[in-house]
Amino acid sequence: MAAKTGKRWQKQMQARIEKERETAVSQLRDLGLSPEVNGVSAQWTADHPRDEGDQAQASERADLGFMTRERLAERINRLTVALERIGEGTYGVCEMCGAQIETPRLEALPDATRCLACQERSERERAA
Ligand SMILES: [Zn+2]
Question: Is the pTM of this model over 0.90?
Fold first, then answer.
């Protein structure tokens, strides 16, 4: 059976990715304004609004917030790339081997850029 990665499917994925990207963008915005949404105390925000500053006692929390912001920013980047690839018509193509990425994998992980085999291989290589 042919992969169900037709125009219609791509449109559905595009809508989904756009929505996920919007969510991530607003999460990132929320995080900047009020880190407590991620389990970081509101006190720190009140004392140091958006300040990456030199307060030693705040550094641990700041790191936590920074990591989460980094992760979100990374996710937004990946989703943006996915949208660009949909626009270019290369969405769902493995960046390593050029094969079509498994449809269930893309549906579970819309920003995936590698097929399962390549992903597993690169994870093995990283672990080695
Ligand atoms: Zn591959």
Answer: no
